[in-house]
Write a sequence for this structure.
C-alpha cells in the first residue's frame, strides 16, 4: 500500500510537468495564430485599398485620354461624354469600396477626401464643358470650339488638366500613406511576435530547468520527459515552417525561373529515410561586390544569366534549385554515381566561375561549393541537410574560396 502511494506521489511532478508543457504549446500556438491572423488582415486590407485607388487612377486616365482626343479634334465629344459618365460611375463604385474599408488611418482618409473633392470638381468641370459645347455646337465642331474662343488647348491645359493631375497626385499620396501605415503595422506585429517568442523561450527554459531537477529522481521519468520535449520541438518546428510557408506560398524563384527552397523541401523530404543521392550547393564568392559596383538590377541580370547557363549545361543530370539569392542547389539524378557527381561538380564550378557577358559587360566571379553523398537516415529533415551543406561551403569560403568541400558525416 505504501509502495503504491509512493509511486503515485512520484508521478505527480511528471504529470504537472506534462501539463505545463501542454499549456506552453497551446499558448504558443494561439499566439502564433493570432499574429498570423493580424498580418493576414493587414495584407487583405492593404490589397483592397490599393485595388480601389488603382481603379480610380485607371478610370481617371481613361477620362483624360478621351478629353485629349476631343481637344486634338479626333474625338467625338458626345461619345467622350458617354464614356466619361461610365468612367466616373466606376470611380464612384471604387470610392464606395474604399470608404467601406475599416481601419484606414486618419491621414489616409484625409488625403483621400482631398482626392475625392478634386475628382468631383473634375467631373463637374467636364459636364460644364459638355454643356457649353452642346449650346454652341449647332453646325459642327468648329462652332463648338468657338464657345471657348477657338482655343480648347488653352482651356484643357489651364483648367481641366490641372484638376486631373491634382486628383491623381492626391490618390498617389493616399497610396503612399497606406503603404507607410501597412509597414508600421507589420513592424509592430513583428516586434510583438519577437517579444512573445522571447517570453515563451524564457518560460520554456524555466520549464526545462524544473523538468531537469524532477527528472534526476528517476531515469525512466527523465526519458519520458525528454521524449515529450522532442515531440514538442518537432511540433514547434513544423509550426515555424508553416508560418514561413504562409508568407511565401510560391515554389518558384521569379528571377531565375528555378524551383526554390520550398520546392526542394517538397521534393526531398520523403526521400531522407530511404534513399541515397548526391546533392551539392554553390554560390559566388563576394557576390555583393557586383551589386555594390553595378547596382541591384545588374546583379539580378547576372544571376538570371548564370541560371540560364546552368539549366542549359546541367539540367539533364540534376534538378536545379535557386534556394537563396545567389545560392544554387543541384539534386543529381538517381543514376548519377558518387564519382560522376564529383566530376560534375567540378564542371559546375568551372561554368559558374567563367566570364559572363551582362549588358555588354564581361563579369567573372569565383565560386565555392559543397557536395554531399547522402545516405538514408543521415538527416531528420531538409533543413538539417542544408545546414550541413552550407556549413561545408562556408568553410570553403573561410579558407579563401574558389573551392569545393565534401560533407563528412561524423
Amino acid at each position: 500500500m505504501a509502495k503504491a502511494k509512493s509511486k503515485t506521489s512520484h508521478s505527480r511532478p511528471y504529470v504537472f510537468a506534462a501539463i505545463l508543457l501542454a499549456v506552453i504549446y497551446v499558448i504558443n500556438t494561439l499566439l502564433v495564430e493570432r499574429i498570423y491572423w493580424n498580418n493576414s488582415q493587414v495584407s487583405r486590407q492593404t490589397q483592397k485599398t490599393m485595388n480601389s485607388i488603382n481603379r480610380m487612377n485607371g478610370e481617371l486616365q481613361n477620362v483624360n485620354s478621351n478629353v485629349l482626343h476631343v481637344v486634338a479634334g479626333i474625338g467625338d465629344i458626345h461619345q467622350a461624354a458617354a464614356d466619361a459618365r461610365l468612367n466616373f460611375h466606376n470611380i464612384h463604385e471604387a470610392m464606395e469600396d474604399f470608404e467601406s474599408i475599416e481601419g484606414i488611418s486618419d491621414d489616409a482618409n484625409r488625403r483621400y477626401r482631398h482626392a475625392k473633392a478634386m475628382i468631383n470638381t473634375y467631373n463637374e468641370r467636364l459636364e460644364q464643358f459638355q454643356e457649353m459645347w452642346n449650346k454652341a455646337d449647332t453646325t459642327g465642331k468648329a462652332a463648338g470650339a468657338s464657345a471657348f474662343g477657338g482655343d480648347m488647348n488653352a482651356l484643357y491645359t489651364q483648367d481641366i488638366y490641372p484638376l486631373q493631375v491634382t486628383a491623381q497626385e492626391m490618390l498617389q499620396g493616399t497610396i503612399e500613406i497606406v503603404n507607410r501605415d501597412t509597414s508600421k503595422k507589420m513592424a509592430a506585429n513583428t516586434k510583438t511576435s519577437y517579444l512573445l517568442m522571447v517570453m515563451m523561450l524564457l518560460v520554456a527554459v524555466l520549464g526545462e530547468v524544473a523538468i531537469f531537477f524532477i527528472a534526476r529522481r528517476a531515469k525512466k521519468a527523465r526519458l519520458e520527459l525528454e521524449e515529450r520535449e522532442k515531440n514538442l520541438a518537432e511540433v514547434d518546428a513544423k509550426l515555424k515552417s508553416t508560418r514561413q510557408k504562409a508568407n511565401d506560398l510560391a515554389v518558384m524563384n521569379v528571377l531565375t525561373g528555378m524551383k526554390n527552397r520550398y520546392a526542394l523541401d517538397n521534393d526531398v523530404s520523403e526521400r531522407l529515410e530511404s534513399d541515397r543521392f548526391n546533392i551539392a550547393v554553390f554560390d559566388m564568392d563576394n557576390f555583393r561586390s557586383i551589386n555594390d559596383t553595378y547596382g541591384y538590377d545588374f546583379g539580378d541580370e547576372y544571376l538570371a544569366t548564370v541560371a540560364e547557363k546552368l539549366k542549359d549545361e546541367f539540367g539533364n543530370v540534376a534538378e536545379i534549385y535557386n534556394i537563396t539569392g545567389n545560392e544554387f542547389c543541384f539534386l543529381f539524378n538517381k543514376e548519377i554515381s558518387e564519382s560522376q557527381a564529383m566530376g560534375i561538380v567540378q564542371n559546375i564550378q568551372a561554368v559558374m566561375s567563367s566570364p559572363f557577358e551582362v549588358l555588354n559587360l564581361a563579369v567573372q566571379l569565383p565560386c565555392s561549393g559543397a557536395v554531399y553523398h547522402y545516405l538514408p537516415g543521415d538527416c531528420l529533415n531538409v533543413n538539417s541537410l542544408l545546414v550541413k551543406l552550407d556549413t561545408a561551403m562556408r568553410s570553403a569560403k573561410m579558407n579563401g574560396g574558389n573551392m569545393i568541400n565534401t560533407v563528412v558525416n561524423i
Remarks:
- The mean pLDDT is 80.
- Residues 275 and 385 are 13 Å apart (CA to CA).
- The first helix runs from residue 2 to 71.
- Strands lie at 277-284, 318-324, 327-332, 356-358, 361-363, 367-374, 404-406.
